Amino acid sequence: MYAIDIKFEQKGMEPVSLAGIKAGDSLLEILLANDIELHHNCGGVCACSTCHLYLEKGQEFIEEISDKEEDFVDRAVNPRINSRLGCQCVLQEGSGRIEVRLPDQTQFLGE
User: Fold this and answer.
1) Cβ atoms of 26 and 87 closer than 8 Å
2) Which whole number is the average pLDDT over 50-69?
3) What's the pLDDT score for residue 43?
4) Under DSSP, is residue 59 helix (H, G, I), strand (E, B) or coil?
5) Average pLDDT for 73-91
């Protein structure tokens, strides 16, 4: 089981911690299932960069970045060395703590 700590760059959003998360789902799926918005224009099939996030801790619990994902990360708004696509961050078997930072989602929603 995993614990996931989520921090937000969007003003006014407080950090959220999730516990008891099972392996096998992507961070995108986990966030959406817990009512945490992470935009995903392509529906989570690695065909855009809108589910971009920053994986701050726990890289060892998630499959390494693929060439395809890396190409889309390069197109994301404000990519960093720890940028990943939420749809491609599938939790592997095991347990641990993961820390994620979500970019300001209003940049996609036109707010």
Assistant:
1) yes
2) 96
3) 85
4) helix
5) 95
Could you tell me the strand order of the sheet in which 2-8 lies? 16-21, 2-8, 96-102, 52-57, 83-85
Task: Write out the chain in H/E/C secondary structure.
Answer: CEEEEEEECCCCCCCEEEEEECCCCEHHHHHHHCCCCCCCCCCCCCCCCCCEEEEEECHHHECCCCHHHHHHHCCCCCCCCCEEEHHHCEECCCCEEEEEEECCCHHHHCC
Distance CA 35, CA 22 (A): 17
pTM of this prediction exceeds 0.85:
yes
Q: What is the pLDDT of residue 22?
A: 96
Q: DSSP label at 26?
A: B
Strands 2-8 and 96-102: parallel
Greatest pairwise CA separation for the chain in angstroms:
38
**Residue whose token pair is 């921090």:** 7
Summarize the confidence of residues 50-72 as an average pLDDT: 95
Mean pLDDT of 22-51: 93
